[in-house]
Every structure is written in structure tokens, then in C-alpha cells.
């Protein structure tokens, strides 16, 4: 008896070493999505190692994080539109890299351009039972199709480009069952915020989720994607929903879904993709739909949320001292006073968009609130509100339905597709101190712009806040009919433009110019043996990768130049530009070689490998913590940084010792941490494979390329078992210049 996850996993094993249980398996990747922020360094290393992209036909690229969302008129020049030279360099790099490798690319002039997780779904590129990856943590969105979809770091992006496989260990299974019926005005966004509050932001670390129960079955594909999207905010890399009639109806006739010839065969296979009755999960969570209400966050972590009828919590009501302190810090940052009713908090901005809530149904939901209020519905005077569709296809569809007219009439700004104000990588940002009702997924400090204050809500609640100027219970605004999230009803959209079937264009000639890598790869050792030096102590839970390296510094195309930017928001006072007295700025910690964190979930959130590069370049080659975010943990091994897991009380002891400014030594060979001054020796455990990888400084790609025969054998098996996964190779050149930047 197997779970859905077990089945997908077993179907994708290219090679599994039987002799060592802890050793990773080589897993085949069916679909690889690529965007501009996490791919330049991967391509650069690939080219300089004289390697090629193995399966461009299984890869699809788009530009989303850096792109402005202001109108893209026909007469605007690209350098005027994309003023920021650093963003521009990243986008040009993506265009060149995809052109060189024949990967389809949706550029800014292409209607199919949009947020990577939105376009993959709407093109029918992601199919049930597949393994899908992207250098982005919200790849989990696509688990809604019953695909094992998860985010990876840049080194793994390179690994997939070169081998179409990944080396990985199997996760544990957790089922989250939500039964009952959602109340009026309660949406999938409220469900997932409730789930995260229930299990905590680190609750899913090491697990793959399966969402089940009557509530999940009744959700549309768009709503399922919203739930799976925020799986990473609960610490799990992937969340699955078994495919069913709703899934099949959504996929039917999508451009790269199976054609007439193989449709029935595919659906027959997909119907078997469900957890067997009686299969065992490592953990089960049950949630009652009646307990879920329209929800809003108050703090700087997605788990910090309450029903709209709730109040800002009092730090003293938390018994755990570390949590109490974290809540105090959050409230200070958010400018909130304990006991304040959520409904009395006024806002400045509203953002409806992001890979969580920018699909057509999200926009319909937002429009239905406006329609229910009537033509007098207007954005409050104190609020500036924007709506950013997830893709050009979504935008066109919304315009076809006249939703943009409703939005504009009410005073919303109607934008072009992109990540927009979800992340501070493009011109859409919050000003310092501005408070935003946002349909995105991360309310981290500074996430939407330095000093910005983010409250996560559903699109319906965002509109309610826009109209009233403060957080409001959407149920009070609407009549009962308009409040329901749309139920699955098969195809409701016009079909997006064809992904395949266009005439092939000639492959590009290889020129010396495109053969040579443009930037020099700095050799960064993948080896770690031991380190001795000052350890810097930190006592904070959930140190996310946005804290380690803020989004605005992700625009480079190399792995270097990040050391000084580590913990930038903590080290630099942005109002004065002066260095703060944050511990990493103080002697001797400014020369720290080890970081000891006496707080859980270090490195959670975004998949940005830049966080590890920044630590390494600062001089830190070992982080000791009670637990780590899964993607960060993995990224460490790709870069010769040793992550050591020790119990919280031991981390506290080590942090206390580190605060005496005495040296610590970490030795991987003997698996020991030594507090040299006091003679304390603490043993730690690490899997034999990871240990030997670090000791040898292994190049995973080289090793995996050594398994080329096995990969080819798998590909042949895939072709005969699941023929609908093969995409017409001729189509790939068609995208070479689609929506080129060089307008
Ligand atoms: C830039 C990318 C690595 C990142 C992610 O992995 O999530 C981004 O999409 C984010 O939301 O922070
Ligand atoms: S979370 Fe935001 S920044 Fe990341 S992919 Fe989604 S929309 Fe883009």
C-alpha cells in the first residue's frame, strides 16, 4: 500500500543505491521551469564546464521577478522600460542562455509571459504524476496537479540542465485532511493560512504533504494551486493533491497537455495516482472546515495569523520566552499594539497578485466583491491599490470578461504580468512604514520593500480592505451569493495561445561569442573538512533567506559580491546609511567563521542559493542550528558549507560559549564541535553520503553524468510508458526570440 508521493517517487527512480539507505537516489525530472533570478549562475557554470542542456524540450523559461509591470506599449524602447541596468543584465542573460540552448522562453513581448508558477500550469506543461522543479521555492504550487513539484537551488538547476535528474533523498509523508464545508467568504487562502497556523512554519520540514478531504476535493484547480503554493510557508518542499475530474477538465486541450491520440491513455494512468486505502503516513493532521474564518496576518511570519474578528496578540500570552521575544520584535516592526482589533487597523496599500493569488479565479473573486457592492464601490481615499495578473494570458482573459473595467472604475491600478510587489526586485515596492493588505505569500520583514509592513489576506479580503481603508470582514460587505469561491466547473476560460505546433525555425549557429561564458566562474570550494575560529551567536527562530540576503541583491549574474550584504537589513540603518551595532559588525564577530543559531528553522523561505554564497563569502563555512529549511540545507552541501543539526539546548550552550568571544572548532572527520577554551566536546551526526561529499568536495554533476547510460535507459522507458510526456522537439526554436528584450 503506497501513498501518492510514494508512487510518484518510485516511478522516477533512475538509480537507487541499495547498499546505503541514507544515500540519495537519482530521480528523473520531467519538467523544469526557469526564471531570470536563479538561472544565470547555473548556465554560466554549465557553459564554462563545456556542458550542454540535456533536455531543452522538457524545459520552459520566462521572465517574472525583475520585470516592471507598468504598461508595455508598442513604442516603448526596452532600455526605457527596463531602466535598472542590473535587472536588464539578468533578463538579457536569460534570453541569451535560452537562445543558446534552445529552451522555449516567454519574453516581455509574449502574451504567455508571466509568473513562472502560473505559466507552467496554464500551458498544460505540468501534468499529473510528473516530477517538476524550478529554482524557486513556490514551485510547490504545481503539486495541485498531483505532480511532485518543488523548489531547488541554483546548483541543482545546473544539475537538472546537465542531466535532467536530481540526487535526492526521500521525504516523509504527511497527510492534511480538511473536511466539512467552507463558510461564506472563506477561501483556499484562508484554509492554507489556517493550516500554517496549526502546524507552524517549521511543521512540515522534511515532509511532503498530501492535502485531502471534502474541502480539497471541492476546490477548483486555481484554489488548489493557492493551497499548494504556500506549502513551503509551512516548511514542506512539496504538497500534493490527487488528480481527479477537476484536474482532467482543467488540462483538457491545454497547449502542451496530451493530444487526442494519447488523452485517454493518460487519463487512465492519472486515475491510478492516488493514495491506497490504508497506506501509512508518518503524520496525519485533521482540520475542520468550520473552524476556518477569513484570515489576516499580524506579524512577520505567515504563521502569525488570526481570523479577521481577532485582535493583535499580547506577547506576554506566549509561554515560550523565545516566541514571546519574536512576537515583541514582530509587533515593533509592524507598528502594532497588543489588543488592537484587526478590523481597526488602517492600511495604505493593496496588492492583488503573486503566484499565490493572481490567476483568473482570483481576479474573478476580487471583481465579484466589487460587483456585489455595486457601481459606488471605490478604493478608499487613504489607499492606493493595484491588481497584477499572473500572466499575459490571465490578463487577456480578465479583459475579455470586462474585469479590468470594474477594477479601474473602482480606482485600482491594472498592471502587466509579473511578480510585482510580492518581492522587492522590481519597481513595485512598499515605502518604509507603509501598511499593505497583500494576497502574496510572505509577510517577512522588508519583503515588499525596506520597512514595508505586509499583511497576508485572500483576494476577497484585499478588496474589502481597499474599499473600507482598513482590514474588514468581507462577509459584511457581500450578499450570500457572491461570497463563494467558484466551484470547479470544467473549462471556464478561453484557451491560451498554442504552446506547440508552430513551424520550427532553424537552430542558431554557434558563434564564438555565444560559445564562451560571459562571466568568469569564481571557483568556490565544495569541500569542507574542519574550521576553527570565532563563532557568532544568534538567538532567533525562523531566520529566513530574505533576512540572510534581501531580494534587491539577487540581481547579479555571478555568485560573488554578496559577503558584505549578508544580513544587510540588520547591519545597515537604511534611514542614515550607517552601520548598526548588529553583532556581525562588531569585533571579533565581523571575522566569524561559524554561526551558531539558538533558534529553529534556520534558512527557511526562499530557495535563493545567494544566502549560502553570502555566508561563504563573509567567511562563515559552518552553521549550527536545531533545524534548517530543507532547500537551504541542501544548498549548503553544494557549496562546501557544513550545516550541523544539534538539539536546541545544546545550541543555546554553544551560543553562550560563543558570546565569550572564544574560538570554536568544528571537525567533520571526527564529527565533533569543540569549545576549545572550556574543553567541551559535542558530537554531531551527519549522513555518511553528505559527510563524504563535503570531505571530498564532490561535483555532483560529474558523478551524475557518469550515470548517463542509466538516464538514457530511463528516458526510453518513459517514452514507452508515458508517451504523452514527450514534446515535439521542433517547437523549441520557435521561442528563440519570442518577446525578445531586443525590441
Ligand atoms: C527569487 C527566488 C529564489 C525566490 C524563491 O525561491 O522563493 C522568490 O521567488 C521568492 O519568492 O522569494
Ligand atoms: S513568491 Fe512572489 S517573488 Fe516568488 S515566485 Fe511567487 S510571485 Fe514571484
From TrEMBL:
<dbReference type="InterPro" id="IPR018136">
    <property type="entry name" value="Aconitase_4Fe-4S_BS"/>
</dbReference>
<protein>
    <recommendedName>
        <fullName>3-isopropylmalate dehydratase</fullName>
        <ecNumber>4.2.1.33</ecNumber>
    </recommendedName>
</protein>
<dbReference type="GO" id="GO:0051539">
    <property type="term" value="F:4 iron, 4 sulfur cluster binding"/>
</dbReference>
<dbReference type="InterPro" id="IPR050067">
    <property type="entry name" value="IPM_dehydratase_rel_enz"/>
</dbReference>
<dbReference type="InterPro" id="IPR033940">
    <property type="entry name" value="IPMI_Swivel"/>
</dbReference>
<dbReference type="Pfam" id="PF00694">
    <property type="entry name" value="Aconitase_C"/>
</dbReference>
<keyword id="KW-0432">Leucine biosynthesis</keyword>
<dbReference type="GO" id="GO:0046872">
    <property type="term" value="F:metal ion binding"/>
</dbReference>
<feature type="region of interest" description="Disordered">
    <location>
        <begin position="432"/>
        <end position="451"/>
    </location>
</feature>
<feature type="domain" description="Aconitase/3-isopropylmalate dehydratase large subunit alpha/beta/alpha">
    <location>
        <begin position="6"/>
        <end position="469"/>
    </location>
</feature>
<dbReference type="InterPro" id="IPR015931">
    <property type="entry name" value="Acnase/IPM_dHydase_lsu_aba_1/3"/>
</dbReference>
<dbReference type="InterPro" id="IPR000573">
    <property type="entry name" value="AconitaseA/IPMdHydase_ssu_swvl"/>
</dbReference>
<keyword id="KW-0028">Amino-acid biosynthesis</keyword>
<dbReference type="GO" id="GO:0003861">
    <property type="term" value="F:3-isopropylmalate dehydratase activity"/>
</dbReference>
<dbReference type="InterPro" id="IPR004430">
    <property type="entry name" value="3-IsopropMal_deHydase_lsu"/>
</dbReference>
<keyword id="KW-0456">Lyase</keyword>
<dbReference type="Pfam" id="PF00330">
    <property type="entry name" value="Aconitase"/>
</dbReference>
<keyword id="KW-0479">Metal-binding</keyword>
<keyword id="KW-0100">Branched-chain amino acid biosynthesis</keyword>
<keyword id="KW-0411">Iron-sulfur</keyword>
<dbReference type="InterPro" id="IPR033941">
    <property type="entry name" value="IPMI_cat"/>
</dbReference>
<feature type="domain" description="Aconitase A/isopropylmalate dehydratase small subunit swivel">
    <location>
        <begin position="526"/>
        <end position="646"/>
    </location>
</feature>
<keyword id="KW-0408">Iron</keyword>
<comment type="function">
    <text>Catalyzes the isomerization between 2-isopropylmalate and 3-isopropylmalate, via the formation of 2-isopropylmaleate.</text>
</comment>
<keyword id="KW-0004">4Fe-4S</keyword>
<dbReference type="GO" id="GO:0009098">
    <property type="term" value="P:L-leucine biosynthetic process"/>
</dbReference>
<dbReference type="InterPro" id="IPR015928">
    <property type="entry name" value="Aconitase/3IPM_dehydase_swvl"/>
</dbReference>
<dbReference type="InterPro" id="IPR036008">
    <property type="entry name" value="Aconitase_4Fe-4S_dom"/>
</dbReference>
<comment type="pathway">
    <text>Amino-acid biosynthesis; L-leucine biosynthesis; L-leucine from 3-methyl-2-oxobutanoate: step 2/4.</text>
</comment>
<dbReference type="InterPro" id="IPR004431">
    <property type="entry name" value="3-IsopropMal_deHydase_ssu"/>
</dbReference>
<dbReference type="InterPro" id="IPR001030">
    <property type="entry name" value="Acoase/IPM_deHydtase_lsu_aba"/>
</dbReference>
<dbReference type="GO" id="GO:0009316">
    <property type="term" value="C:3-isopropylmalate dehydratase complex"/>
</dbReference>
<comment type="similarity">
    <text>Belongs to the aconitase/IPM isomerase family.</text>
</comment>
